[in-house]
Amino acid sequence: MFEIIEGVKNTHSIYKTLMEKRGNEINECDDLMAMFMKEMTKRINDKDSHFFTEKQCCFLLSDLFGAGVETTVNTLRWFLLYMALNKEIQVNIITRV
């Protein structure tokens, strides 16, 4: 359990560093992170707001990164299975390389 908590802290630290670096550029960008940070900046003085916080941004970035990793892993898994089952395609690729 300790390793998981430390992993979350470490990844959130990386995301916070990314947010700090992007802080000056958010008005020039229209991606998800910039839009989230713009809204976060608007609500910074609202003490009753529990939305658009730095912590939520870190979890959002974590979810997006995790989804991308999972998609890539599944794609590579299927590609390798397809290649393992099709010898003629393996030969074709080897002769072209």
At a glance:
The protein is mainly α and 97 residues long.
Describe, in plain words, how this protein is organized in 3D:
By secondary structure, the chain is mainly alpha-helical. Helix content is 76%, strand content 0%. The chain is built from four helices and no strands. The longest helix has 32 residues, at 54-85. The radius of gyration is 21 Å and the shape is elongated. The N and C termini lie far apart (46 Å). The relative contact order is 0.09. The model has no long low-confidence stretch (mean pLDDT 91).
List the helices and strands and how they pair.
Layout lengths: L1 H21 L9 H11 L11 H32 L1 H10 L1
Helix pairs in contact: 1-3
Count of runs of 4 or more consecutive helical residues: 4
Per DSSP E runs of 2 or more residues, the count of β-strands stands at 0
In the predicted model, the low-confidence regions spanning at least 5 consecutive residues are none
- Percent strand: under 5%
Mean pLDDT, rounded to whole units? 91
Order of helices and strands: HHHH
Largest sheet: none
Shape: elongated
* Spatial gap, N to C terminus: 46 Å
Rg, nearest Å: 21 Å
Helix content: over 70%
Q: Briefly note the structural class of the backbone.
A: mainly alpha
List keywords for this structure.
97 residues, mainly alpha, 0% strand
